[in-house]
Amino acid sequence: MDTKIDILLGMQWGDEGKGKVVDVLTPKYDVVARFQGGPNAGHSLEFNGKRHVLHIIPSGIFHESKTNIIGNGVVIDPVIFEEEIHDLEKLGLTPEKNLFISRRAHLILPTHKLLDAAYEAHKGKSKIGSTLKGIGPTYTDKTARTGLRICDIETLDFIDSFNAKIEEHKIILDSYNYDYQETLKSMVDSWLKSLNTLKKFRFIDAEYEIAEYLKRGKYVLAEGAQGTLLDLEFGAYPFVTSSNTIAAGAFSGLGLATRLTGRVYGIVKAYCTRVGSGPFPTELFDDMGEYLRKVGNEFGATTGRPRRCGWLDLVALKYAVMINGVTDIALTKADVLSDIQELKVCTNYKVNGILTDRIPADNNAKIEPVYTTLKGWKENISKCKTYEELPQTFKDYIKFIEDETKAQVSIISVGPDRDATIFRNDK
Questions:
Q1: 236-258 tens-digit pLDDT
Q2: Per residue in 119-129, is it b (16+ CB within 10 Å) or e — as a string?
Q3: Is 43 a catalytic residue?
Q4: Strands 342-351 and 367-375
């Protein structure tokens, strides 16, 4: 019988700490496969006193005995990919040995980045807050069935197809009166040069390969990017990303049968953050918001932008648990909440004045959070190694989350390092 595939994904607006949790869980798996997003993701990991940030490459790459796969649902910028590979090589790693790329993954072209910037500039005050990495335009071409994929690199007429696509994009850029003349040539030259690094890696039919791994009883972890509340379908549209960030995206992003679902790990920050525009009901504009930003080092791993900070939103979290079928919650950055006397948790909304426990589809609805206040903890939990060592008020915080979501908090991160992790009731 085939092994089940486990899925790990973000439950909020991204930046929940997925990279660290994947890194910590990787020893339990044979394969880590990234299933959507692109270099708009920033998965941070810390070990041996050093912080590492990945954008395209799966977070299991630091375990050289484990296979890492970039799935078909991911969009790849060869220039950023090359930068990541060079960073890994500086650490003494040889990623060509354990990193493979789906032939069906789409390519981010230089003009996709320019289009991203042109679209955002055109929106003015209505801009989404794009990372400007070319993600949206690449997925647009994918949906329009005009994109270029990894498998196209292997064809004889690839350069002709590439040049034709660049010319097509230039027509759109001209219609937006976007000035690209000074930058495009150098961008194209760098992009084409970076293909040499990309070509060093084995391109695979990932759907077949993963199916074979599962048939052979191997354990596979599907790694998501961004977060549930940024999902193209179920986030606060249009302030969302361009891919399906929810558990269902793992099946289309890797070519898997839904019957193979195993555990679903939902990564949850002990408070909430968001980068970019869009609704954020529990956002704090006071000293507490600034405190969370400073103590939590809440600045985007991809853009460096300061993150918007707020209290934990259980209305949104219960929604994320429901649509992802979460079996296990990994609670991260709880150490940031130490030394706060009282913690607020949003348990309901007032939407246009009406009390509800549901997220409205209309992102223009007026949402007022309804809070429950819980006792905080003074203790520094970053040194705790077991659940029993944690202060009772923190355990009460965990229990409150479990009672509300009906999902177990089975992993607790009490610091950025991979060793600052507590496994609870591990199966």
A1: 999 999 999 999 999 999 999 99
A2: bbeeeeeeebe
A3: yes
A4: antiparallel
- The residues, ordered by sequence, that sit 6+ positions from 83 with a Cβ below 8 Å of its Cβ are none
Which runs of consecutive H residues, i.e. helices, occur in 103-157? 110-123, 135-143
DSSP E strands, 311-341: 312-313, 328-332
Task: pLDDT band for 427, please (50, 70, 90 cuts).
Answer: very low
Q: Which of 15, 116, 313, 335 is catalytic?
A: 15
- Rounded CA gap, 162 and 105, in Å? 16
Looking at 6, 23, 30, 43, which residue is catalytic? 43
Pairing state between β 43-47 and 67-70: unpaired
Q: Would you call 180 helix, strand, or coil by DSSP?
A: coil
96: DSSP letter: G
| CB under 8 A, 24+ apart: contacts of 287-292 | 288/340, 291/340, 292/336
Question: Which residues lie below 8 Å from residue 391, measured CB to CB, with a gap of 6+?
Answer: 377, 378, 379, 381
> Which residues, in sequence order, are bridge partners of residue 350?
355, 368
Peptide bond into 238 cis (omega under 30): yes
Residue 155's alpha-carbon distances to 105, 151, 196, 323, in angstroms, are: 15, 7, 15, 40
Q: Are 73 and 257 in contact (CB under 8 A)?
A: no
From 31, 392, 352, select the one nearest 216 (Cα to Cα). Answer: 31
Rg (CA), the chain: 21
What integer is the mean pLDDT of 211-230? 96
pLDDT of 1 reads 64
> Of the candidates 51, 33, 148, which has an alpha carbon nearest to the alpha carbon of residue 99?
33
Structure letter (DSSP) for residue 245: -
| CA dist., res. 385 & res. 381, Å (int) | 9
The single-letter DSSP state of residue 106 is E
pTM summary value: 0.94
Using alpha carbons, select from 36, 38, 41 the residue that is nearest to residue 112: 38
Give the span between the Cα atoms of 101 and 150, in whole angstroms: 8
Question: For 414, how many CA atoms within 13 A lie in the half-sphere containing its CB?
Answer: 23
Buried b (16+ CB within 10 A) or exposed e, 217-248: ebbbbbbbbbbbbbbbebbbeebbbbbbbbbb
79 and 46 in contact (C-beta within 8 Å)? no
CB 405, CB 321: distance < 8 Å: yes
